Amino acid sequence: MAIASLLLYALYTAVDIQLRHTQEARDVVEQSQLARALLRRITNDITPSLAPSLPQSATQSQGGGGAAGGGATAAATPTTGTTGATAGAAASAPMTTTAATGANVVTFNLGVQGTDTTLTLYVSRWPRELNFDPQFAGDQTSQPTLSDLRRVTYVFDNDNGLLRQEVKVATSDDALNQPAPVLDDGYTVQVADEVKSIQFRYWDGSNWQTSWDGTAAGSDGMTPQGPPMAIEITVGIALPNSGPEGGDPVVKTYRHVVALPTANGVTQTSTTTP
């Protein structure tokens, strides 16, 4: 009986070790699959991101007297009237340049904006809502107004992990007000609570930057600099079933770099050789 007990104990120990190693391997595979799925989802949002709209063009306006000479026009040359007095008034009127902006100007999109912990993208994609909802299948005229332009924001929350907010730009003023992503706001969903940290960096062609604003003026002082050439995503994911009770879980970091096709190219330098 003693020998049998020793053999059974040894067998139990071997089986227990094998089962623990199997579970650990499954946890690692699950963590890796989650990391790939998260990075793929963020990549799918980054790839169709748009460059910010070009600034409004300037217009030439004429002041002074005369019905013909006092009206605003977009032409670069002054408009003259039919009489000499009118023509003189138009010629002597000062030329002023005003930006073509107004209270009703629609901001199309703001490109890529972000910090080291938050990423906001203005993307264009086929609206999923166009897939017929059963309640609209018999009456296409009752389909809601849709837009292919969306504002997508990723942010990390200590209590809920990675959050994703999607706002329909064409149908909501919240796209420009940029509300902070919060669960139950109607736009934000929890992507994965296993995420324990996330960091974004932006490649400008020569260095990694910790923040980015695609609407900032470029080298010419007017044209937006547009999206960065690449975005680096570093995400920390907790290993399932890791860490003692009440302790910190084991976190593994994954890094992925996504190139943006809408980014401006690197400034080319010319060299001469003998």
- String of helices and strands: HEHEEEEEHEEEEEE
Distance between the termini: 93 Å
- The proportion of residues in beta strands is 25-35%
SS-derived structural category: alpha+beta
Shape: elongated
* CA-based gyration radius: 30 Å
Placed side by side, the strands forming the largest sheet appear as 7-6-5-4-3-10
Number of helices: 3
Instruction: Give the total of beta strands.
Output: 12
Average pLDDT across residues?
Answer: 75
Task: Describe the structure in brief.
The longest helix has 45 residues, at 2-46. Helix content is 21%, strand content 27%.
Describe what you observe in this structure.
With 274 residues, the protein is of the alpha+beta class. The chain has helices spanning 2-46, 84-92, 174-177; strands at residues 58-62, 95-99, 112-114, 118-124, 149-157, 161-168, 188-192, 195-203, 208-209, 212-213, 230-238, 251-259. Strands 7-6-5-4-3-10 form a 6-stranded antiparallel beta sheet, with helices on one face. Strand 8 and strand 9 (208-209) form a beta hairpin. The chain is elongated, with a radius of gyration of 30 Å.
Label this structure with key terms.
alpha+beta, 274 residues, four-stranded antiparallel β-sheet, elongated, single chain
Helices, strands, pairings?
Blueprint: H1 2-46, E1 58-62, H2 84-92, E2 95-99, E3 112-114, E4 118-124, E5 149-157, E6 161-168, H3 174-177, E7 188-192, E8 195-203, E9 208-209, E10 212-213, E11 230-238, E12 251-259
Antiparallel strand pairs: 1-2, 3-4, 3-10, 4-5, 5-6, 6-7, 8-9, 8-11, 11-12
